[in-house]
Amino acid sequence: MSNETATAEAAGTAEAPPAPEPVPHGLGASLPPADARAKTEGTFPYAADLWAEGLLWAAVLRSPHPHARIVSIDTSHAREMPGVRAVVTHEDVPGAPLHGRGKADRPVFASEVVRHHGEPIAAVAADHPDTARMAAAAVIVEYEVLDPVLDPEQAFEAEPLHPDGNLIRHIPLRHGDPEAAGEIVVEGLYRIGRQDPAPIGAEAGLAVPRPDGGVELYLASTDPHTDRDTAAACYGLAPERVKVVVTGVPGATADREDQGFQLPLGLLALKTGCPVKLTATREESFLGHAHRHPTLLRYRHHADAEGRLVKVEAQILLDAGAYADTSSDALAAAVSFACGPYVVPNAFIEGWAVRTNNPPSGHVRGEGAMQVCAAYEAQMDKVAKKLGLDPAEVRMRNVMATGDVLPTGQTVTCPAPVAELLRAVRDFPLPALPKDTPEDEWLLPGGPEGAGEPGAVRRGVGYGLGMVHMLGAEGADEVSTATVKVQDGVATVLCAAVETGQGFTTLARQIVQETLGIDEVHVAPVDTDQPPAGAGCRGRHTWVSGGAVERAAKMVRTQLLQPLAHKFGMSTELLQITDGKITSYDGVLSTTVTEAMDGKELWATAQCRPHPTEPLDASGQGDAFVGMSFCAIRAVVDVDIEIGSVRVVELAVAQDVGRVLNPAQLAARIEAGVTQGVGIALTENLRTPRGLVRHPDLTGYALPTALDAPDIRIVKLVEERDVVAPFGAKAVSAVPVVASPAAVASAVRAATGRAVNRLPIRPQAAVVTGQ
């Protein structure tokens, strides 16, 4: 300390230290995630970090063939290996031999036939992971290799691959006049590739036998109660004897783990009486878990001379892979949103989901809606080109609004500010053109030292308008339960909504802070001893679980305020809680929450259940959805038309969000969704020649990196609250995934003049000859 400072302090003239930054608080604040520090420091407990005394290690033997008849399985050599404690096959499954998220049609272990590359045949538990892997490889399986059915179009005529047949679902949607016709007609055939969710971190789990003959499963589950019920049925146990404890989930853009990965764990733990751990390799993850449905789409759009849509005809074929999974749900979304957020008076859509011998397909963010968005937006570009109109203007003449009717006959009752979103991205200033100088070569497609020449680069601007439903459809019972407890100035939230990175735990803290004025809020770990909250997908926990937390917190608030209101002869509505203080409207009452609690413990449990929906009928009609979310994206790309390389320069995003609950978290979710969409558009395609997964690793599967991420400009967030949703908020992460691939493809079409009818966009599709 200097003499001057000491003298100043002695004289009382030293400057006061700066006031601490206010801590973010309540809804609308950018409250940081509670687990952010642990994740960045590497101390967050993921499933792969688990350990138990007497631990055994598991390994799974998987089919090397996409389709084969199993002649025999010989486990004797594996059982005789030193260190091997158990080997299980289909013969060791004591309960239900089949499982599945949407339909129970998938065997725990293949017994008579294998239907896809990587299907589980047997599992081994040993005292060392290397021993387990060697023992699994020592299981001798004799196969009779069969010809696989790989083309979904051939599945209609092929021999049945499954006792239930090859057709999983057919939806024939009929809306309006089949004879209606437009002055112009445009057609297109489109193909969408197989995207892997590529979850961050290893898929891992631990099973621990219980003294009562049950088992505890420690998993990175996104739907623990469904996983518990499936496991209990497989093990032949009552659900209360199986407990699922959710470990740290390292991100999820789909169902986090394959149930076929989880089920062998408990079987081995029950058979050996020891804890068993299984950590999947990246190859096993690619082979086992569900992928986005590869899709074939045929479209015909009719429009009048002004570019207004008259009729849309489409055929949509989803490749479900070997088993049904959630393909029925994906097909319902694809058919229902096949025309996009546009007013279409006449629509005739045929949709099918079929089994093949390709890898399994299932829930991936924006399922069904993403595939059709790429197709209908390509069609809108064709309408604009045929009429010589601006692509944005054609879209503007057709966008839907609140009160319009979907092709399913359902009226859009939620806010649908599609025109406002489109205007926002259309009018946003375009980015500057790259300079033709050496120091800016990295701006070119291909990056520094790339093969392209600046003179071959063309810039394109394109648009994508997307829509998704936010909750389960067609009569799904969307319900969640939450408990809020308060004691000694600390609040605890108990809710089985899994934090997958979507920010639910942060939202729950904000809700309680806002309602009760308590700063310190903890969210308890999730397990199946709590009431169910449902799956962590489609951002549904913002609605149903956030709504349950809010209702429980308000019930506690009433318990807290009622004694004070009674004492002062007023209603609780005349009291407010702000920054931990309770005050009355007239200022007579002023006390702190802690003083009002007076050492008591208050708690309440509440449920949130949105209004019911109904299945689509035989003509594809019905009020099948609760709530919808919309997004408009303008893409700017640079394309080297000689070599076909594409650089996404900028994506301008406008989205209706209902209400911003956490600005930083919302922006991060939108940016992540957009980046995932760029991967779908340009690089991600899990190739399966002859039904075999090729390059099942993150070297062969091209995920976008930070260097591939474009500038993402969130130009407008429309906060028009949905009156039936808690807080009026909408889920935000899925719809940017839906719209961004279509926008990128639209921009590449604008730059090249090529049709671009396949995602991801292959270099040859962006090459322009004769220039």
UniProtKB/TrEMBL annotation:
Aldehyde oxidase/xanthine dehydrogenase a/b hammerhead domain: residues covered: 41-147
Pfam family, one: Ald_Xan_dh_C
Superkingdom field: Bacteria
UniProt region (Disordered), positions on chain: 1-37
Bias (Low complexity): 1-16
GO molecular function: iron ion binding; oxidoreductase activity
Protein name per the record: Molybdopterin-dependent oxidoreductase
Organism whose genome encodes this protein: Streptomyces griseicoloratus
